[in-house]
Amino acid sequence: MISELTSIERYSRQMRFGGIGKAGQERIVNSRVTICGCGALGTVLANNLVRAGVGFVRIVDRDFVEVSNLQRQVLFDESDVINNLPKAEAAAKKLREINRMVTIEPIVTDIDRTNIIELCKDVDVILDGTDNFEVRYLINDASVSLNKPWVFGGCIGSVGQSMTIIPNETPCLRCVFEAAPGPGEVGTCETAGVLGPMVNVVASYQAAEALKLLAGKKNAINRELLYIDMWENTNRRIKIAPLLNKVNCPCCRQKNFEWLDGAHGTQTTSLCGRNAVQVSLRSASKLDFADMSKQLSASGTVSHNKFLLKFNVDEFEFTVFPDGRAIIKGTADCEKARTLYAKYIGH
Question: Hey, what domains does the chain have and what are their CATH numbers?
Answer without folding.
Answer: 2-260 (3.40.50.720), 265-344 (3.30.310.10)
